[in-house]
Amino acid sequence: MSTIKSSSEDLTLNADGSNEVKFQINAVEKASISSAGAFTATTIDATKLTGEKRNYIIDGDFSQFPEGTGATSDSGYTSALFQSSHTTAGTITTERSTDVPTVAQSNHTSSYSKLSKCTGTDVSIAAGDTISYRYYMTGSDFAHLHQQQVTLSFWHKTAAANSGDTYAVTFMNGSFNRSYIHEYTSTSSWQQETVTLTLDTSGTWLFTEADVGLRIIFTYMSGTNYQGTADAWSGNLHYATSNTSNFMDNTSNEVYLSQVGLYLGSTAPTFSSPPIATVKDQVAYYVQRYGGTVSNHDICSGMAENGTGAYGLLKFPKVMRATPTMTRFDATCLQAHQGVGVDNATAITFGNISKQGARILVTVSSGLAGDGGVILRTVDSGDWVQADARH
User: Fold this and answer.
1) What number is the average pLDDT over the span 143-169?
2) What is the pLDDT of residue 11?
3) In what order do the strands lie in the sheet with 130-138?
4) What beta strand segments (E) does 175-211 contain?
5) Residue 307 confidence (pLDDT) above 90
6) List of long-range contacts for 31-34, beta carbons under 8 Å, 24+ apart
7) CATH numbers and ranges of domains, the chain
8) Tell me: the pLDDT tens digits for 232-281?
9) What contacts 96, CB < 8 A, 6 or more positions away?
C-alpha cells in the first residue's frame, strides 16, 4: 500500500495483485484503473458513510415539556413541539412517561416518551372526529427535503387492551391539501416503525420561516371525512384510512411514542439526540416559558410609572422564530417588588412585543412609588409568563 499526495487530497492506492489499482476519492466515489487504462467509477451509497445524519425533528426524544409534564386533556402543545388535536365525544389525556425503549432494543437511552390515554370512550365515531398528534416543520427546514426521498423512524407501543391496533402517520403540506398516509400496527411491546417515501412533487409547498413546510401527523382515530388510501399521495385532507382503529373504544387503551426521527435518504440511523443544551436552544427558538417552578421567581426588572402601574422589560435570551404570542398563568400571577414592599397585580398585559422581547405591564391596587425601580416576579410556584412563536 502506498499514498500519493495531491493538491486537493490524499489518494490511497492498493495493489490487488491483478494488475489493477483501486483507490477512493473523498469517501464518495470508488474508482479503478485497469492495466489497459480503462477507468470505471461507482457511487457509494451515502447512507453507508460514517457520520451522524441530521434528524429534522427537533426534540424527537421528548425531553422538553414547557407546559408541564402532567396529564392534560386540552388540545394544544403537549411536549414542546408536538401538538395535540382532538375532536371526539370521549376524553383523552396526554402526559410525559418514563416508559421508554430499552438500550438493548433501540441502542439509545431515552428518559421520556409521550403517553396518551383514553379516559372516556367514544364508540360511535362521527364523520368529522379525529385524534392526532402533529409536528410542524418550518418551511425553511423543509426546503432541504422537498421532493426528495426521506425516512421517518419512531418507536411505539400500546397497553395490552389495544395491542394489535392499527394507526396511521401522515405527511401533509402546510395548506392541508396534499397528504400521504402510512399504516402501522402497534402492540404492547416497544417496536420501531420506519417509512420511506419520496416527498410530493405536486401541490403547493411553502419554504419560508413564517410558513409550515411539512406536517407529520400521528393519528389514533379518524372519522370517514378524513380517511384516504395508504401509501399514495392525495390531494385531500386525509389523516388515516378505513383500517385505522378506534383508540377511544376502551378506557384501558394507551399509546406511547418515542425517539422520532426524520432523515434524508432511504435509511434511518440509530436514533440519537443532540446535547441537552442544544435541544433547549432549538426549542427556545419556538417557545419560552418563565417561572412555573418556584414562588417569587424573578421575571424581569422595570419601573413604576405611578402608584398603581409598573412595567418590566423582558428580553428573550434567544431571538424567536416569529413575533410571539404572550400569555400568562392568570391576571394576578405577578407582583411588583419595590424595596421592602410587594404589590400583587390586579391586571397583567403585554406591549411592544417583538422577536427579541416584550414589555410586561402590571396594574396593582396601590402602594408603588412612581419613577422607582421594580422587579416583576411570580407569586406562586405554578405561575408563569410564556412567549409562543410556534406554528
Assistant:
1) 98
2) 41
3) 76-77, 82-87, 130-138, 212-222, 165-172, 179-186, 233-234
4) 179-186, 191-198
5) yes
6) none
7) 2-44 (no CATH), 76-284 (2.60.120.260), 288-388 (2.60.40)
8) 999 999 999 999 999 999 999 999 999 999 999 999 999 999 999 999 99
9) 62, 65, 69, 70, 79, 112, 113, 114, 115
Computed over every residue of the chain, the mean pLDDT equals 90
Distance between CA atoms of 218 and 82, rounded to whole angstroms?
Answer: 10
Distance CA 211, CA 209 (A): 6
Instruction: Compute CA 65 distance to the chain's CA centroid, rounded to the nearest angstrom.
Output: 11
C-alpha cell at 236: 385531500
Confidence of residue 51 (pLDDT cuts 50, 70, 90): low
Closest C-alpha among 271, 317, 316 to residue 107:
271
pTM: 0.86
DSSP 333-386: SEEEEETTEEEEEEEEEEES--SSEEEEEEEESS---TT-EEEEEESSTT-EEE
Q: Which residue, chain included where needed, has cell 394576578?
A: 332
Nearest to 261 by CA among 248, 249, 274, 243: 274
Q: Given 3-state DSSP classes, what are the helix, strand and coil percentages for the chain, each rounded to the nearest 5?
A: 5, 45, 45
> Which residues, other chains included, contact 138 with Cβ-Cβ below 8 Å and sequence gap of 6+?
209, 211, 212, 213, 321, 391
Please give the pLDDT value at position 288: 98
pLDDT for 30 beyond 80: no
Backbone angles phi, psi at 26, to 5 degrees: 55, 20
Model confidence pLDDT, tens digit, residues 89-148? 999 999 999 999 999 999 999 999 999 999 999 999 999 999 999 999 999 999 999 999
Q: Which three cell numbers stand for residue 235?
A: 390531494
Tell me, letter by letter, the H, E, C secondary structure of 278-296.
HHHHHHHCCEEEEECCCCC
The pLDDT, as a whole number, for residue 48 is: 45
Helix H or strand E segment including 277: helix 276-284
37: amino acid identity, one letter = G
The distance between the two most distant Cα atoms of the chain, rounded to a whole number of Å, is 96
Distance CA 348, CA 237 (A): 40
